[in-house]
Amino acid sequence: MATTIRIPTARILTPAVAILIVVATYHVSGRLLDRPIESIAVNGPFQRVTALQVEEAISDELDAGFFGADVGRMQRKIQALTWIDGASVARRWPSQIAIAISEQVPAAIWGESGLLNVRGELFITDVRHIPAELPRLSGPDDRSSDVARRYLAVREQLIPLGLDVRRVHLDARGAWDMTLTNGVDIRLGRRDVDERTGLFLDVVANIITGRAADIEYIDMRYSNGFTIGWNDGAETPLTDPQDKDPAMLALRGAP
Question: Which of 76, 93, 128, 227 could be joined to 219 by an S-S link, Cβ 3.0–4.6 Å?
């Protein structure tokens, strides 16, 4: 025999009505509490970007109100500005938007008019005023970070010796060469570049320190040594001190 169970309609409707009341109250309260954005506070170094530029970047977001404004979208628009490295956007009750920015720090010139930041990222491709004091790095655009890493790694070890790097270039074939601030060219080629760079830093840099004025270039493109090109046109082949070939252990023809 079938049994019919009757559930009072009130038991179903009461929770549903309560939920609707909560949702409606939330939306109504949001509208009542929302208010126009009355001020924007922008903190940053302001070396390359002005507070006005930041405000202009988000101007079309401000009409949405204090709660209605999309702070995530504001942040993305600010970060899209050329010289901005990072940005944070937050609400400050009752009616202020607080913005903190950090600017890109140029570490090197890339190609003819680009700039790399301290992480080796190309953040601007056509700058109007090139800072003359920055080193020049160049190569295929998709290798900018590789060139920057080599520059930073070499420079870190040269600075304690009183040397520095003015230029690093990677050509389309993968060959590397550098120029120091004293004008000495370093030719690394495209094979065993890490090993050649290591030999240069361990041995050759010390030679340059003592006789930079006499040296035109260092050619590291040898399997067992390197060549010094002197300003008077002479060349001196030397070897890695770890090389055991007796025919290449002595300095020959050095001026």
Answer: 227
